[in-house]
Design a protein that fits this description.
The complex is a heterodimer of chains A (about 160) and B (about 110). Helices cover about 20% and strands about 35% of the residues of chain A. Chain A is of the alpha+beta class and about 160 residues long. Chain A folds into two domains: about 110 residues, START domain (Alpha-D-Glucose-1,6-Bisphosphate, Chain A, domain 4, 2-Layer Sandwich); about 35 residues, no CATH class. Chain A has a seven-stranded antiparallel beta sheet with strand order 1-7-6-5-4-3-2, with helices on one face. Chain A is globular and about 40 Å long. The N and C termini of chain A lie far apart (about 35 Å). With about 110 residues, chain B is α+β, with helices and mostly antiparallel strands. Chain B has a single domain, classed as Arc Repressor Mutant, subunit A (Orthogonal Bundle). Chain B is built from four helices and three strands. In chain B, strands 1-3-2 form a three-stranded antiparallel beta sheet. Classes of the chains: A alpha+beta (about 160), B alpha+beta (about 110). Chains A and B meet through strand 1, helix 1, strand 7, helix 2 and helix 3 of A and helix 4 of B.
């Protein structure tokens, strides 16, 4: 029996005290100033991720050894209101050209600032790679690992 | 990868955890999951819905019955990890935008 798990998209909403154009700029050309440095693909240190400012542009990380490692693509470049990225990283943070999950970011003026809504969707496509992810965090059989992690969470 | 334990936020509710544990030995229809639990069947369905949104369980129809099972592929953990990742990334983004906006006003 084969089943298709469809997890809900990851949705985030945050308000920033800045104009729509500023928010879009910092998200894209300024991504190197906020992207968590610990989240990188290549073996060398991360210098910064780069989002090419055009439809069909690349989304990659630039490393200290000069190498470029793909993260995904720019599916829609619509400043200052909308950005649609294709996230092609597996559960192990490895690039997979066949994996296409979408990250849509909407920038909407709100009061004195901007509302930023992010949706990471098509997560069911991570299914095959998530299996490896679970193995990485899980004990044999799955269940004992789940409960151990649960206990850890509950204790916090 | 320790952040994956965020998924178990869905399991901090003891009743929801009991519902999840009932699926430990294989797929079960809602009625069977609800049997013996001190809550109503609609409440059990609600808990199953939360577990499904977290990617921890999946369901399918079998005649008039709805059968639930534990997600075999670890998508719940993956989703929880991404949820946590975007939380911390967007928090850092917001701080940077506001710093830059202040700078511009100077």
């Amino acid at each position: 029996m084969s089943t298709q798990i469809r997890p809900a998209p990851v949705r985030k909403s945050i308000f920033v005290n800045a104009s729509q154009a500023q928010a879009f700029d910092v998200f894209t050309s300024g991504i190197g100033r906020w992207w968590p440095k610990s989240h990188k693909i290549g073996p060398a240190d991360l210098v910064r991720p780069v989002i090419e400012p055009k439809d069909g542009g690349r989304w990659y990380e630039l490393d200290s050894d000069g190498s470029e490692c793909d993260i995904g693509q720019v599916a829609a470049w619509e400043p200052p209101a909308r950005l649609l990225l294709i996230w092609q990283l597996t559960a192990e943070f490895k690039f997979d050209p066949n994996l296409m999950t979408e990250v849509e970011v909407l920038f909407t003026p709100e009061g004195s600032g901007t509302r930023v809504n992010l949706e990471h969707r098509n997560l069911e496509r991570l299914g095959d790679t998530a299996e490896g992810f679970r193995e990485a965090i899980d004990a044999p059989g799955g269940w004992s690992g789940l409960l151990a992690l649960y206990a850890e969470e509950a204790a916090q | 990868m320790a952040n994956a334990n965020r998924v178990f936020a869905a399991l901090t509710d003891p009743t929801r955890r009991a519902v999840f544990e009932r699926l430990r030995h294989g797929p079960r229809p809602v009625g069977e999951i609800a049997r013996g639990l001190p809550v109503t069947r609609p409440a059990v369905s609600q808990h199953l819905k939360v577990l499904k949104e977290a990617g921890l369980v999946d369901d399918r129809s079998e005649g008039t019955r709805r059968i639930y099972q534990i997600d075999p592929k670890g998508l719940g953990a993956m989703r929880a990890w991404l949820d946590q990742f975007w939380d911390s990334a967007l928090t850092a983004f917001a701080e940077e935008v506001e710093r830059a906006a202040k700078e511009e006003k100077k």
